[in-house]
Amino acid sequence: MQSKIYVGNLADELASQGKTMDSQQLAAALNAAGCKTCTGKTYVGGRGTDKLKSAAYDYAIKHNKLSTAKNIAELLVDKKGQTPWCLRYKA
Fold first, then answer.
1. Measuring CA to CA, which residue among 66, 64, 56 is closest to residue 10?
2. Do residues 68 and 12 lie in contact, with contact meaning Cβ atoms separated by under 8 Å?
3. In angstroms, what CA-CA distances link 34 with 27, 64, 85, 86?
4. What is the value of pTM for the model shown?
5. H-helix or E-strand spanning residue 78
6. How many domains does the chain have?
7. 29: containing domain
8. Cα distance between residue 45 and residue 16, in whole Å
9. Alpha carbon of 58 to those of 9, 28, 42, 79, 80: distances in Å?
């Protein structure tokens, strides 16, 4: 499964549970699912996860999955529990 589809599915699952997930938790989930960065490395919860969140959001919009895009923007948060910088202009 593509990482951006995985992120969308994960965001939808978080929505159904009323939860959020920060970048470090997302990195752990991605690594557990066997996802790798574009350079073939594991995720650590920094720029790689933010770039993936943004790509997943764009993918969801492109495929008219607006509720998934909203979930990505609102539930995959930064360390402070806020929408990450990479999605602030999109949400």
1. 56
2. yes
3. 11, 27, 26, 23
4. 0.87
5. none
6. 1
7. 3-88
8. 23
9. 14, 22, 22, 22, 23
Phi, psi of 20 (to 5 degrees): -120, 170
Per DSSP, the three-state class of 21 is strand
pLDDT of residue 85: 63
Q: What is the 3-state secondary structure (H, E, C) of 23-37?
A: HHHHHHHHHHCCCCC
Residues 6+ apart with CB under 8 A from 36: 3, 42, 43
pLDDT along the chain (91 residues), means of 10: 91 97 95 92 88 93 95 88 67 52
Q: Which amino acid is at 73?
A: A
Tokens in use for 89? 């202009």
